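Hi support team,

I'm filing this because I wasn't sure whether my run with zinc ion finished correctly. The job status page said complete, but I'd like someone to confirm that the output block is well-formed before I use it downstream. Pasting the exact inputs I used:
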Amino acid sequence: MQLSPEMLTGKSRAHLEHLPTVHSQHHFLQAQALKAFQSLQQCALQNGFNLQPASTFRDFERQKLIWNSKFNGERKVHDDHGNALDLSVLSEWEKAQAILRWSAMPGASRHHWGTEIDIFDPDLLPQGQPLQLEPWEYEQGGYFFELTQFLQEKLPHFDFYFPFVQSEKNTEVGCEPWHISYFPLAQIAQEQFTPDLLLTAWQNEDIAGKTILTTNIDEVFGRFWVV
Ligand SMILES: [Zn+2]
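And here is everything the job wrote out:
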C-alpha cells in the first residue's frame, strides 16, 4: 500500500489496524504486517518463545516527545554499551548526532509506517528487570540471546528482517537487534520517503534542534538513514 505524506510521518493512523496483546491496548500495524507478525508469534510459541511487541506504531507527537526530551537532557542518551552520555558538554550539532544513533527525528521514524516492531520475550526478562532495549540484552550473554538466534533463522520465512543490524556497516545508526521490519511494506514506504517530505511535516512544529537539523538535512539522511 502506498502511504500518504501524513501516514509516512506519523500524522495519520488511517493505514493501521489494532494488534490485540495481553499487556497493552496500544499496538497498531498495517493489516498485512499484522497478519505476518501473528504468524511469526505462532511459530515462536511452537519453539518455546513468548514473542511480544514492546513498541509498534508510534505517532509524530510521541516521537517528538522522545526527541525533545533527549535533546533537552530529560531522557537518557546512551552509547553502544548502554552508558549514559553527558550531552551538556556537546554543541547542538554534536548532540543531534549522538541522539540520531538511536532515535529517529520526529516524522522520520520507521515506526510511523505500521511495519516496524520492537520485540522482546517477557518470560525471559528477569523478575523486576525493566526492558531497556539496549544491545547487550539481545547479544551473547544477554537474556534474549536465544530469541535473537531464533529470529535470525526464522524472520526471512515471514518476510521480516532486522533493518538496524544489517545496516550497521553502511550507516552510523546503532545496532538494534530488537527492531524487526516487515519488508514488503517497509520497502514501499522507504522508497516514498524524502527529506522534503520530512521538512514539510516539520512546518509549525516545535522540534528541538530544528534549525541545525534543517541546515544539515542532506548529511543527516546520508549518515543516519537506513537504505
Ligand atoms: Zn524500533
